[in-house]
Amino acid sequence: MSGESPIFSQTYDLLRWLLPLVAQMPHEHRSGLARRINETAFHFQHRLIAATKEPTNRAALLREADSALGELRLLLRLARDLQVLAFKPYEEGARRTSEIGRLLGGWLRALE
Predict the structure, then answer these.
(1) pTM of the predicted model, to two decimals?
(2) 87-94: which pairs have CB atoms within 8 A and are 24 or more residues apart?
(3) Domains in the chain, please, with CATH?
(4) pLDDT tens per residue across span 38-77
């Protein structure tokens, strides 16, 4: 169940940290980049939850989650490169997504 694995609490903590940060982005980036960051982060979480509910499709759902996490990393990097996100928050986001990626990779390896 979702409450038993650290990946779910780490993902929740990422969302709790990320949403206020994205809300502070300059207005010209909120409807594009900020919206896409939010959507991708929630899509990632949704795929994780779906993987717990659909054991027959678990590996495919986790691969989709992995893809969403990769996209989230890219979007955070883009925000940093466009100077919409300062270095310290980018560094924190990179740390959080890396840790979640390690947990996700372990889950995928356990299925193989």
Answers:
(1) 0.92
(2) 89/21, 92/17, 93/14, 93/17, 93/18, 93/21
(3) 2-111 (1.20.1440.60)
(4) 999 999 999 999 999 999 999 999 999 999 999 999 999 9
